[in-house]
Write a structure and sequence with these properties.
Number of strands: 13
Strand order of the largest sheet: 1-4-2-3-13
Helix content: 25-40%
Radius of gyration: 27 Å
Distance between the termini: 22 Å
Length: 402
C-alpha cells in the first residue's frame, strides 16, 4: 500500500513555518479539514510547497491564489485556509508512483466515482472466448471472469482494432457476428468468398478444423508471433529442401510480412495471464530504486532497493530481486482491480516521455527474468535521479478530487 506516510499540522497563525516544512517536490497530498465529517481535498502536484501555498495562504499574500491565479469568471478561487487542519502527503518522484498513489487514495475516498475523477479509461484488449462453439477475435474494453483469452493492453481502442484487422488476415477464423448454423444453403459472406474464412456458416469446414485454427490464433498472440514465425520457417525449409524454390520464396515473403507486423506491435501487449514485468522507478530516498512487479493484471507492493545500504550487506542485489520476483507466496498486491491495474500500467507505458524502465519475464517455456538487464536498468534510473529544484514543474496532474 502506497500510503500517505507524512503529515504536517496546519495552523493559520504559523503558516510561514508550515510552508517551509513542506518539500518543494512532486507529491500526492490531501488536505484534511478540522471538522471530522468534512470530506478531504485530494490532489497530486509537481511542487508540494507551492501547491499548498496556493490553497492555504492568505488571499493577496505572495503565492496566494488571488495574486496570480484568480479566474476571470465569477467563481472565486479555492481557498481552504479556514477549514484545513492537516496535510497528509507522500513524495512521488516518478509519475508512475504518483499515479498509483493517487489511484489508491481516490478509490478509498470516492469508491463510486474515482474512475471519472482520475479520467481512467478502461484498457483496450483483444478477446477470444475459446469456450464458445465458433470463437472470434474482437476488441473489448471490459474484462470479466469468463475464462476468455485476453491480449493487451494497447494504447487505444483504435490501435487494437488496427492490429486485429491486420493480423487476422494471416488466419481464417470468422469475423462476422451472425449465428453459426452450418447450413450448406447459406450463401456465406465476403470473407469466405475471398478465402479469408473457413466458412463454418455454410459447413465449409469441420468443427475440429475450425477449433484448430482458433487455437493457432491464440498461440500467435500468446507467443507474440513466435509460433507463426516458427511454422513459416519450417514450411520454407521443407520447400527449399524439396527444391520447390518458388513456394519457398512465397513463404519467405509471408514470413517477412509477419515480421514487419510484429515490429509495429508495442512491447507491452501480452496475453494477460502471461504478462509478467518489472517496472523500475526512482525512489524518494536518494540512491534508491522502487521495483514494481506487474503480473497478470495486478501490481505488487514495490520493493525498495537502497543501493547505498545494499553495498555493505552480504546478500547481493540479484538475490534480493530473486526473492521478490520469484517468490512462490503471492506478493501483497495493491488494491486495484485487474482492469484498473492494466489501465494504470498502460497510461504510464504509452506516455511520452516515459520515465523509468520496464523489463519483461521471458515467455514460457524459457521463463526467466533478465537479471543482468534489470541491474543495468537500475543503474540508468539512478543516473537520471536528480533532486528537484524549488521551482521545478512539469509533472502533469493526473487528477483532482474535492
Amino acid at each position: 500500500m502506497l500510503a500517505l506516510d507524512q503529515a504536517a499540522e496546519f495552523d493559520p497563525a504559523c503558516d510561514g513555518d508550515f510552508f517551509k516544512s513542506l518539500p518543494p517536490r512532486p507529491a500526492v497530498y490531501r488536505v484534511e479539514a478540522r471538522a471530522e465529517d468534512a470530506r478531504p481535498y485530494l490532489r497530486c502536484t509537481s511542487n508540494l510547497r507551492r501547491s499548498c501555498r496556493r490553497l492555504l495562504a492568505l488571499a493577496g499574500t505572495p503565492g496566494g491564489v488571488a495574486e496570480k491565479e484568480a479566474p476571470s469568471g465569477p467563481r472565486p478561487p479555492l481557498n481552504l485556509r479556514d477549514v484545513a487542519g492537516r496535510v497528509r502527503y507522500r513524495l512521488t518522484p516518478s509519475p508512475f508512483e504518483q499515479s498509483l498513489t493517487l489511484y489508491q487514495q481516490a478509490r478509498e475516498l470516492f469508491p463510486r466515482t474515482y474512475r471519472e475523477r482520475l479520467r481512467l479509461a478502461p484498457p483496450a484488449l483483444l478477446k477470444i472466448n475459446l469456450a464458445k462453439e465458433y470463437p472470434r477475435c474482437s476488441v473489448t474494453q471490459r474484462m470479466s471472469g469468463d475464462g476468455a483469452f485476453y491480449f493487451g493492453p494497447f494504447p487505444s481502442r483504435r490501435g487494437a482494432e488496427e492490429f486485429a484487422q491486420e493480423f487476422l488476415t494471416l488466419f481464417k477464423i470468422r469475423r462476422c457476428h451472425i449465428p453459426i448454423r452450418r447450413d450448406p444453403e447459406f450463401p456465406g459472406c465476403i470473407y469466405s468468398e475471398m478465402k479469408m474464412c473457413l466458412g463454418p456458416c455454410y459447413a465449409g469446414c469441420t468443427k475440429p478444423e475450425y477449433d484448430a485454427e482458433a487455437l493457432r490464433v491464440a498461440g500467435f498472440l500468446s507467443s507474440r508471433g513466435g509460433s507463426l514465425i516458427a511454422e513459416l520457417e519450417a514450411e520454407r525449409d521443407r520447400a527449399a529442401a524439396s527444391e520447390d524454390f518458388e513456394s519457398a520464396a512465397l513463404v519467405h515473403k509471408k514470413r517477412e510480412k509477419v515480421g514487419a507486423l510484429l515490429r509495429r506491435l508495442p512491447e507491452l501487449p501480452r496475453r494477460i495471464g502471461l504478462l509478467d514485468a518489472a517496472i523500475l522507478q526512482p525512489a524518494a530516498v536518494a540512491g534508491s530504486v522502487l521495483v514494481f512487479r506487474v503480473r497478470a493484471g495486478s501490481i505488487a507492493d514495490p520493493l525498495l532497493l537502497n543501493f547505498r545500504e545494499l553495498s555493505s550487506m552480504p546478500r547481493s542485489v540479484e538475490m534480493i530481486l530473486r526473492d521478490y520476483l520469484e517468490s512462490e507466496a503471492p506478493p501483497a498486491v495493491l488494491d486495484a482491480s485487474p482492469a484498473d491495474a492494466l489501465s494504470l500500467v498502460a497510461r504510464w507505458f504509452y506516455s511520452k516521455p516515459r520515465s523509468g524502465e520496464i523489463l519483461f519475464r521471458e515467455i514460457p517455456p524459457a521463463s526467466d527474468w533478465p537479471y543482468r538487464q534489470i541491474l543495468r536498468a537500475c543503474a540508468r534510473v539512478l543516473e537520471r535521479q536528480e533532486p528537484l529544484s524549488p521551482g521545478a514543474s512539469g509533472t502533469r496532474s493526473t487528477g483532482e478530487a474535492s
